[in-house]
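testing teh design pipeline on a random one, pls ignore if ur not involved
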């Protein structure tokens, strides 16, 4: 009987040690992960932005990690829609961050934007300013139009249609358009 009590007591002491060690390890893991753990982790995440009941854009991602004011997303696509509700451009990137207060979106690491009329934009990162409906970057950009015109520069401010494009820094381009002979 005394041996059973001693064994039970030894098991209880051992369990207490395991609980203490486990709780210490969790604190160290939290610090090694940067100290901040997401409140929610989602798979196949989708968010739709509307204005007066009309769809403006839809963000879709393979994974989403929800923090207080930010949502970090992986394998992100943002589809932009016109007033008629038709999709007119697609922005894709391996990752991004959505601000839940402003609905601004930052995407990065090999970004591509493709419009319905086959304009392509490539850059390292893009910032979607939701309130002004502009995409901006201070990184190098390459724009390829359907007629094979290529524009390269540094920095960009554009609408999501890529109809109004402003290169903010130096720019150069190549165009297959032949100018008419001025001597004729």
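output:
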């Amino acid at each position: 009987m005394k041996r059973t009590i001693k064994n039970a007591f030894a098991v209880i002491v051992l369990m207490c040690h395991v609980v203490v060690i486990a709780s210490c390890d969790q604190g160290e893991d939290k610090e090694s992960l940067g100290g901040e753990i997401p409140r929610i982790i989602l798979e196949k995440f989708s968010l739709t932005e509307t204005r007066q009941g009309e769809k403006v854009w839809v963000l879709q991602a393979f994974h989403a990690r929800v923090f207080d004011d930010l949502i970090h997303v992986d394998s992100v696509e943002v589809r932009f829609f016109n007033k008629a509700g038709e999709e007119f451009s697609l922005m894709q990137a391996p990752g991004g961050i959505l601000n839940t207060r402003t609905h601004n979106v930052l995407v990065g690491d090999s970004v591509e934007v493709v419009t319905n009329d086959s304009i392509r934009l490539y850059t390292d990162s893009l910032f979607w300013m939701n309130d002004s409906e502009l995409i901006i970057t201070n990184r190098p950009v390459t724009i390829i139009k359907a007629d094979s015109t290529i524009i390269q520069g540094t920095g960009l401010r554009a609408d999501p249609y890529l109809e109004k494009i402003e290169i903010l820094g130096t720019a150069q381009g190549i165009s297959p358009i032949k100018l008419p002979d001025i001597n004729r």
